[in-house]
């Protein structure tokens, strides 16, 4: 599975959009981009995933560049409860493949 | 609530004790996973079970012994652990899907302390 690069930390004001970048320049054609987050000492929570089209759900939007070498997770109106470590993971489709977690981005949302 | 439960939530044990961690998923999934998260380190995959068969053992020491009696239950049996085994142990489950691979859903974890 391709490796990802994320900034170690980011800040965001409450109510503003949080844009979390991820680089995955070695991604291959059958690999999806997944985003999870982990609030302190809890289990990781699935947010969203995509292959090449932009995706949106009730939690967030995922924007994937045309060359698929990078993506951005957007939390449109960040709240204090969105403070967490956000993980960007790329992995191939199908089966029961493992998720390889990196260090992620620690997002701090402040009033 | 993700549909994956873990018990106990906290466990303190001595190095000579034997204990077990339990995971149950109520999602009808066919794959289950154990992960370990030590302080200030990324999650590490330990074991993968698919349809009750172990399909991956990520070089885990034999003092950790998994058991998957059915697709809904997963255990991690612990014996003669070391203090460095203290960590958050996370269980996850997924369903093999044609599109998008399998999204894994995690339980809340068991915080283990080995004295």
Question: For the residues shown, what is the average pLDDT of chain A?
Answer: 91
Please identify the oligomeric state.
Answer: heterodimer
- Tell me, rounded to a whole number, the average pLDDT of chain B: 89
Sequence stretches where pLDDT stays below 50 over 5 or more residues of chain B: none
What letter string, H or E per element, gives the SSE order of chain A? EEEEEEEEE
The helix/strand series of chain B, from N terminus to C terminus, equals EEEEEEEEEEE
Ends apart, CA distance between termini of chain B: 31 Å
Give the beta-strand count of chain B.
11
Could you tell me which chain pair has the largest interface and how many residues each side has? A-B, 24 and 33 residues
| Helical content of chain B (DSSP H or I, runs of 4+) | under 10%
Low-confidence stretches of chain A: none
Strand-pairing-aware structural class of chain B: mainly beta
Shape of chain A: globular
In angstroms, what is the radius of gyration of chain A? 13 Å
The major beta sheet of chain A can be summarized as: 5 strands, mixed
Strand content of chain A: over 45%
Major beta-sheet overview of chain B: 7 strands, mixed
Indicate the percent of residues in helices of chain A.
Answer: under 10%
């Amino acid at each position: 599975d391709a490796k990802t690069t994320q900034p170690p930390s980011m800040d965001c004001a409450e109510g503003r959009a949080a844009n979390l970048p991820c680089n995955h320049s070695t991604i291959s054609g059958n690999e999806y981009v997944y985003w999870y987050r982990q609030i302190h000492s809890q289990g990781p929570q699935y947010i969203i995933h995509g292959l090449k089209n932009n995706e949106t759900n009730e939690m967030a939007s995922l924007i994937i560049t045309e060359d698929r070498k990078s993506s951005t997770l957007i939390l449109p109106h960040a709240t204090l409860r969105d403070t967490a470590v956000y993980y960007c993971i790329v992995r191939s489709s199908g089966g029961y493949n493992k998720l390889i977690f990196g260090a992620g981005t620690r997002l701090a949302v402040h009033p | 609530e993700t549909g994956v439960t873990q018990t106990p939530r906290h466990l303190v044990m001595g190095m000579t004790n034997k204990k077990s961690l339990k995971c149950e998923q109520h999602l009808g999934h066919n794959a289950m996973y154990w992960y370990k998260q030590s302080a200030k380190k990324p999650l590490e995959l330990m074991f993968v079970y698919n349809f009750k068969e172990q399909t991956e053992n990520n070089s885990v020491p034999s003092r950790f012994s998994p058991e998957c009696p059915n697709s809904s239950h997963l255990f991690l049996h612990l014996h003669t652990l070391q203090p460095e085994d203290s960590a958050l142990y996370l269980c996850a489950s997924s369903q093999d899907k044609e599109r998008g691979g399998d999204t894994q859903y995690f339980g809340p974890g068991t915080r283990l302390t080995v004295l």
